[in-house]
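Key result, reporting period 2: structure in, sequence out.
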């Protein structure tokens, strides 16, 4: 449970974000209301708080690629259908499984509503500037791909543009709506599939850049648990431990991972003196030194739990220092291990392991090819690549969900309509369309419920 101070901080940031959004909305409304004609002449339109700048720039590039590489683009469209279809099924299954986990482990799950928003500035998990960069790349890739398949399908692209909501939210391609509605289903499915599939492909490319090309030069400065925070007045604070140190041995027990430390301190008692060997980046030589007499405090004083009374407490926040966090396969030898490694890699932001900055940068050294770069510059590049991977993956997978108005929703409708069209009792187009629309609407609300259930479930069970 969050402390009172953390709760107040959260409320402060919620109110600040709400205030900024309200100011932006009011400002856009006033400016649009007073100078609408002048603004429209600049190819700018407003839809509520959203500001869209439309342009013809880039349209010629899309048309050139689409018209000179027709076969290649069509083949890419067919591949995109497969990628998006697999993603649709996978994401729907994951949502159902997540809903089951909420029921089974409601007490262990605590997800706030803002954690479901993939918007930098509103979701505190997403760093602002890396998030904006990743989101812009994701939206440009997404809409550019739609544009290619739109033109190959001989549907007119009216305009391209950028959408703003305080910050740039991404790019868009505006096709001729009538042309889309009259388009052959298989061509329309390819057009809708191209966006999510392209995001997933780009995510794969940047994952390779990050984990293989960049992180192959990263090594831990020492094996152990890195200290990321020290509580004021705790045993760690009094004993001389500071953020940036790496604990390698605790009271004679070698520490290689977080579980080693958890098990070792569980054997101690309050007021016990322990020795701690650490890697200290602020001293010369090999950086190793020993703190021989650190007096542990009573864990009960920190947690208030009777079960913790008399147990030793150090008072640090820490993480296992290892480089396989940053590699989606890691040292996996089985499919189960591979699944765990991939899930850790994708959830680095949830574990506060991306972006790598602050004291965490000091836990690693850069050698090999990239050693010529300053440490700070290297991590900016690495973090940018990871967040381009992460946001492209999230945009691609979320848009593959079978819920209108997402791309996957329109794909599902066309697939369902084609399937039902083969059944004799559904040959009446008007009747079939109503049934398809109804099923698609129910499915869309079901998907929305499954997403919101991650927040609602733990609070009502």
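The corresponding designed sequence is given below.
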């Amino acid at each position: 449970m969050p402390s009172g101070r953390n709760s107040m901080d959260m409320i402060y940031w919620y109110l600040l974000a709400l205030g900024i959004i309200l100011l932006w909305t009011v400002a856009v409304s006033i400016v649009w209301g007073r100078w609408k004609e002048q603004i429209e002449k600049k190819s700018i339109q407003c839809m509520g708080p959203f500001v869209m700048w439309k342009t013809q720039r880039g349209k010629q590039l899309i048309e050139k690629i689409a018209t000179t590489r027709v076969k290649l683009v069509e083949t890419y469209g067919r591949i995109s259908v497969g990628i998006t279809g697999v993603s649709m099924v996978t994401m729907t299954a994951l949502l159902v499984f997540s809903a089951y986990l909420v029921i089974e482990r409601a007490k262990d799950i605590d997800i706030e509503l803002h954690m479901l928003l993939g918007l930098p500035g509103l979701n505190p998990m997403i760093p602002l500037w890396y998030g904006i960069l990743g989101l812009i790349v994701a939206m440009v890739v997404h809409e550019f791909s739609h544009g290619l398949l739109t033109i190959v399908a001989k549907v007119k692209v009216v305009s391209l543009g950028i959408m703003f909501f305080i910050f740039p939210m991404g790019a868009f391609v505006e096709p001729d709506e009538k042309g889309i509605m009259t388009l052959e289903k298989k061509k329309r499915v390819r057009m809708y599939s191209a966006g999510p599939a392209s995001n997933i492909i780009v995510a794969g490319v940047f994952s390779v850049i990050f984990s293989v090309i960049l992180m192959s030069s990263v090594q831990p400065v020492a094996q152990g648990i890195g200290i990321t925070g020290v509580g004021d007045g705790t045993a760690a604070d009094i004993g001389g431990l500071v953020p940036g140190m790496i604990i390698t041995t605790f009271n004679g027990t070698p520490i290689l991972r977080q579980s080693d430390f958890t098990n070792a301190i569980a054997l101690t008692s309050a007021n016990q003196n322990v020795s701690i060997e650490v890697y200290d980046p602020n001293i010369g030589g090999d950086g190793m030194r020993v703190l021989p007499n650190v007096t542990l405090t009573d864990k009960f004083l920190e947690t208030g739990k009777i079960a913790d009374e008399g147990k030793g407490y150090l008072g640090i926040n820490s993480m296992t220092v290892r480089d396989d966090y940053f590699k989606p396969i890691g040292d996996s030898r089985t499919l189960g291990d591979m699944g765990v490694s991939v899930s850790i890699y994708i959830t680095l932001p949830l574990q506060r392991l991306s972006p790598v900055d602050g004291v965490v940068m000091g836990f690693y050294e850069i050698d090999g090819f990239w050693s010529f770069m300053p440490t700070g510059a290297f991590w900016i590049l690495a973090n940018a690549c990871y967040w381009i991977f992460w946001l492209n993956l999230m945009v691609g997978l979320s848009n593959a969900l079978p819920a209108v108005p997402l791309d996957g929703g329109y794909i599902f409708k066309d697939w369902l309509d084609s399937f039902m069209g083969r059944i004799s009792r559904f040959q009446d187009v008007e009747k079939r369309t109503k049934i398809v629309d109804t099923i698609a609407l129910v499915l869309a609300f079901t998907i929305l419920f499954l997403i919101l259930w991650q927040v609602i479930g733990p609070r009502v069970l």
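Residues 1-6 have pLDDT under 50 and may be disordered. The CA atoms of residues 214 and 306 lie 48 Å apart. This case is discussed further under Risks and Mitigation.
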